[in-house]
Amino acid sequence: MQKSIVIYRVCRFTQAREDSRFFISQEENAMKFYMPARLYEESDVVAKHAKEITALGKKALIVTGAHSAKKTGAQADLTEILSDAGMDYEIFDQVEENPSTRTIMQACRSADVADCDFVVGIGGGSPLDAAKAIALMLAHPNWKEEKLYQNGQDNSHLPLVCIPTTCGTGSELTGVSVLTRREQGLKGSIPYVLFPDLALVDGKYLAKAPKRLIANTATDALAHLIEAYANTGADDYTRMLVDRGLEVWAESKNFLLGLEEADDARYSRLMLASSLAGMSIAQAGTTVPHGLSYNLTLEAQIPHGIAVGYFQAGYLRECPAQMRDHLLEKAGFASPGDLDAFFRQICQVPQVSQEVLAHCLTAVMNTPAKREICPFDANEQVLRRIAGLK
Ligand SMILES: [Fe+2]
């Protein structure tokens, strides 16, 4: 039996706030906004911004998983502009789902990467998060693997480009990198703030993604929007992003239900919802549902989007009524139950044992910062209800 999993980096928001303290006032009602990535979101975005990409260095390290970067055409778009510019590159395509710290070190130790001076991540959350960590470690060649999860102060990294091929992670617009330490059964954000220099978003890369993957990642985007808003760290900037994000997200509900065919415009809108959600969590962080989700993924191998979707209805039920109603209205749901029914229609949600759910609870009980930013008292009894524990 796998032991209970404890999140080793307790809170994405905490770290981002610590790192950005130079401009955040401690006064009540203080506002903040920090999103240093240069974002371009348009069709053929890689070709259109070739000069900005190639200006980042002399040799690129392209970080991907096994398939999506190739299948979507994103890798070919990138290598074409690099070749046209006469630039060399290496490809590391061994990033697994829920990338491990070991994979990061494997990529960094390869002799081929020695002279790479910038990094391009292509794919879903796993390759993008891995690319961030690799860019960090390549800038600090003397750092050992442990440094990835020890509290760090030095966030400097090689120039970094992120190109998403799914519509949920938001990683291209956050400073977060979530990694796994497999031997210890630990998954969580590493304690560094790693925003890409360039985030290049193109809806066309979704066209070749399986419907199942689009549904899962769109659910992750919805979770980001809900958790960024139902969050004591949210301010008017965050709420503005979430309100627009939910409106844009809701436009794709019929497509997600299989009632409409997608076209280029639909894929672009799904990507836009994901971008707005990513920018939202870059400000406020994620809360209890994400904290609960990591055990579902590691113990029950449930994809991240489904794992966070699993707890959204329960989370909303605990939120103050006005906040809950606002979020539901913006997303076009009548009630938390309605949202949950939608989620179960678009995603294949497996049965989860009470034992695994109990481990989820233990993990989030050990993560006070995730609970402290909830807009209600997230005590054990409340968390049991959110987790669906009897
Ligand atoms: Fe997420």
From TrEMBL:
Its EC number is 1.1.1.1. Keywords: Oxidoreductase. Residues 215-308 form the Fe-containing alcohol dehydrogenase-like C-terminal domain. Residues 36-202 form the Alcohol dehydrogenase iron-type/glycerol dehydrogenase GldA domain. It is an enzyme of class 1 (oxidoreductase). One of its GO terms (molecular function) is alcohol dehydrogenase (NAD+) activity. The keyword Oxidoreductase applies. It holds the Pfam family ADH_Fe_C. PANTHER family: ALCOHOL DEHYDROGENASE, DEHYDROGENASE, PUTATIVE-RELATED. This is Alcohol dehydrogenase, iron-dependent. It comes from Shuttleworthella satelles DSM 14600. The lineage of its organism: Bacteria, Bacillati, Bacillota, Clostridia, Lachnospirales.
